[in-house]
Amino acid sequence: MTNIFSDLSKAKKTNIKRTEKNIQAQLELDYLQELMDISDVITANFYDLTQMNNDKWGGQEFRKLDNLIKDCEAFEESAQKMNLPLWESRMISVLSALYYLSKFKKTPTLPSLEKIKDLITSLDYDMKQLYIFKHEYATRPNAAHFPNLIFILEDDTLYADTVAAQLQNLGFETQCFGTIKEIRIMSEHLRPNLVLIDLNLREGKLAGIDYLKEIQSEFPTLVMSGRTDLKARLESIRAGAKDYIVKPFDVDKLHIMLCKYLELDYLKKPKTLIIDDDELTALTYSKFLENYEIETRILTDASMALEEISTHHPDIIFMDIRMPYANGYEIANVIKQVYGREKSPDIIFMTGAVKDGLPKRSRHHSIQTQNTLIKPLKPIQMANIIDEHMKRRQFMSSHV
Length: 400
What we know:
By secondary structure, this protein is α/β, with parallel strands linked by helices. The protein has helices spanning 2-50, 59-81, 85-104, 110-138, 157-169, 180-187, 207-215, 230-239, 251-261, 279-290, 305-312, 328-343, 379-398, and strands spanning 149-153, 173-177, 194-198, 221-225, 243-246, 271-275, 295-299, 316-320, 346-351, 373-374. Helix 1 (2-50) runs antiparallel to helix 4 (110-138), helix 2 (59-81) packs antiparallel against helix 3 and helix 7 (207-215) runs parallel beside helix 8 (230-239).
């Protein structure tokens, strides 16, 4: 009974913390929305001012300028009250340029107007990007605290999106950045749990090293790079990177690294394939494994084994030995020839016939297997075998 009350108390505290985080997330959104409203007014007024097409500014232009300054001061004051120093400091940069124009009553040059325009538009854009990102998470159930958030600094957009999609499938939240400037801005408002950094960026070769030195040990960092030379690895270590992974990499290897540095349990969901010409038996075993939340496919035509493996990449195969097209040992030999020992799925043989003896294995057959299982198989028996194989694979992957 004590344990029940203890669990209820923990659940209550968890719900209170979750509610507080949700309230805080919504408050941040409200603050950003208020600043964005002021920013929209500033952008519109600045555009209106620059469209007057007068070679020399007079009273009308400077009155518009003074109104623009008041809007910017309102933004800066609001940002200060909301304790948003980054937006406050960026608006101060805008105000400095506007104060100069107002004080000396000079008609601004085109380059000076362009500079002010860049400051205003970039501030407005960055703020809206942050709002979209925060709103996406704040509107998800129980997601206001950004669990396991990974920042990806990679200037190859396609590659970054691919890695992000793979990590999202594993349960991580991700945000991609193409430049150091972009990730700096977001980091002021949102703290990642870990950062993946490419070495060569738009800012230059080994620019990722400079950013590593800049952030030091604020959060764990992993370097991902196509470079395999000693210099790149040494520079990464000296700059504070926790680990180094060479592109292109296997997402399972990256998953293990992330779990290690985020102190998470590595729980790769196994993919299982059942090859058996008896469809009813295959469906029964598939249903067994689905109850254990193990992704399972069945194949009743052994001649399609290579195509199935190539398409769906199973980790483990339960292979019937006696089949009409070819016996299980022969199919296993072909799989080994195509994929090699390291990349072949683990294969567990099973059979319902032992009285007449089993088919002879080829003397060249060398795939690692457990003892042949005798049908009918039990659900817990299959689940335990899969668990053992996945643990072995995890250990081997982490020591590559």
